Amino acid sequence: MNNSWEKALLSKDNTIREALECINKVAIKIGLVATEDFELLGVVTDGDIRRGLLKGLTLNDTVENVMNNTPTVMPSNTSTSKLVKVMREQKVLSLPLVDDKKIVGIKSLDLTESKEQLKNPVVLMAGGFGTRLSPLTDKCPKPMLKVGGVPILEIVLQSFIRAGFCEFYISTHYMPEKIQNYFQDGKKWGVNISYIYEQTPLGTGGALGLLGNKISNLPVIVMNCDVLTDVDFCKLLDFHKQSNADVTMCVRKYDYQIPYGVVNVSNAKVQSMVEKPVHEFFVNAGIYVVNSDFISAIPENKKTDMPNVIEEQLLQDKNVMVFPIHEYWLDIGRMDDFNRAQIDIHNLHILHDS
Questions:
Q1: What is the pLDDT averaged over residues 32-50?
Q2: At what angle do helices 152-163 and 233-242 cross, to 10 degrees?
Q3: Is the distance from CB of 246 to CB of 313 less than 8 angstroms?
Q4: Predicted confidence band at 351 (pLDDT cuts at 50, 70, 90)?
Q5: 196 with 209: CB under 8 angstroms?
Q6: Model-level pTM greater than 0.70?
Q7: What span, in angstroms and rounded, lies between the C-alpha atoms of 208 and 300?
Q8: Which end of the chain, N or C, is surrounded by fewer C-beta atoms within 10 Å?
Q9: Quick check: 44 and 30 in contact, CB under 8 A?
């Protein structure tokens, strides 16, 4: 019987942030919300938390607000074959074992032996000039700037490789030879790398138009190469599939505080006053999952950016979903971002093993 459930225990008063820390530490990737005498109140997963964030909750809210209080449970004497059958049918990785309402164990699917390479293409946008990082980019394309001694693009590539992806397309324009000479065909990393060359800058959406029919019919992950993140790309892909999405856009919660007291007025009469209110927004994180027909609909050599193409999808009533990122995320657009990355990289798990 698996005793790792004890490390996954949470109180209903724990914060969502504490639940995340717990889930990321335990191998079963699930939090068990229980009373002091181990009576199961609910379970919480990464997906539960992301749905809560989309509803406006914050990481400081309690886990009670996001937990599933009617999870599937099984008695401890259930056979392994039965447990595996239920997990596969319900598409869950872990099942709590409960006797008399109290947790006595947990059964998890062992995915390590059956892990296979993911054939979903990954398109990395590496054609920008990086002018805001000049003079560093005067003689070096931004994707080849080093963070922690490693080119940014290699860090991104390694993150996908660790998740099981093996088919890559890199879009280039500015100093493409420096990128191609370094990564070549990808054999050094045990993957396949192809290149898309923009004769003139086409934008993130226009670059996809150059793929034409070269790409498979599987959902495609598209990512700006100047983003550092430890987001779980497999969970992102699963979310896209389960949502039956045409497009999934990763978003980050961004807080903006108005530095003044705000006065709400109606007909010259003060209705209320709020001192320095904070407004929350979801902002584009530069990571997308798109279906292959999304790419085939982009005209070749048309200059356009991903937000514009997505707006066209919305006008066509396509299913455009958002996937909130609560993990580390940094857009290396300015010099202070680049300097911050040099510090952050040593505290993260996204730098490849040397």
A1: 94
A2: 60
A3: yes
A4: low
A5: no
A6: yes
A7: 8
A8: C
A9: yes
User: Which helix (H) or strand (E) element contains residue 312?
Assistant: helix 306-315
The total of other beta-carbon atoms located within 10 Å of residue 210's CB is 18
Give the pLDDT confidence score for residue 354 in this predicted structure.
38
| DSSP E strand stretches across the chain | 9-10, 31-34, 40-44, 94-99, 102-108, 122-125, 146-147, 150-151, 167-172, 192-197, 220-224, 227-229, 247-257, 261-266, 269-275, 278-290, 320-324, 329-331
Query: Could you read off the pLDDT of 89-148 as tens digits, one per residue?
Result: 887 888 999 999 999 999 887 644 445 689 999 999 999 999 999 999 999 999 999 999
Question: Please, which pLDDT band fits residue 5 given cuts at 50, 70 and 90?
Answer: confident
The count of C-alpha atoms lying within 13 angstroms of the C-alpha of 73, restricted to the half-sphere facing its C-beta, is: 22
Nearest in space to 302 (alpha carbons), one of 211, 214, 221: 211
